[in-house]
Design a protein that fits this description.
about 150 residues; about 75% helix; mainly alpha; Four Helix Bundle (Hemerythrin (Met), subunit A); two-stranded antiparallel sheet; globular; single chain
Length: about 150
């Protein structure tokens, strides 16, 4: 097991979400660098990896039990997806920077939740199922994720 895999294995579900947001930000910056360098192939790879993470997060939402929070996150993911597609299609660093700013804002909220003692206690009391299905194309950065509901 690699260092990254061990680090991920020790994370709670909220910390895993923060890590996925970090991955999106990292891939969006790669796409921006690729646009600046005129590297179409690298731009497409970076955007695809961002979209893979978004689709993974979207697929893990429990809109049936998560209420308005899950619906809001679903709409957020759809909006970021659209920004990424448009940013890639137009080779627009401005659109990708807009996506980064939005992802950062929501990531910060998740980070606050990850440090909330009540949330940590709830996570310790509840059992969550580990699955080996990290987001496709994340370069092994997220080899396992936890089931959760928003």
């Amino acid at each position: 097991m690699s260092y990254q895999q061990k680090a991920i294995a020790g994370m709670n579900p909220v910390e895993l979400i923060v890590a996925l947001y970090d991955g999106m930000i990292r891939f969006l910056y790669r796409a921006i660098d690729a646009i600046d360098a005129g590297d179409i192939a690298e731009r497409r790879i970076a955007i695809k990896r961002t979209l893979d993470i978004l689709m993974h997060l979207q697929s893990r939402l429990r809109t049936d039990t998560g209420g308005s929070s899950a619906r809001s996150l679903s709409e957020f993911y759809a909006a970021i997806f659209a920004l990424c597609i448009e940013g890639s299609r137009l080779a627009s660093t401005a659109r990708l920077k807009e996506a980064i700013a939005c992802v950062r804002d929501v990531r910060e909220a998740w980070q606050v939740v990850a440090r909330d003692p009540e949330v940590l206690e709830l996570l310790q009391r509840s059992s969550f199922e580990q699955t080996p299905s990290g987001p496709p194309g994340a370069n092994g950065e997220a080899e396992s994720t936890a089931s959760w509901s928003a």
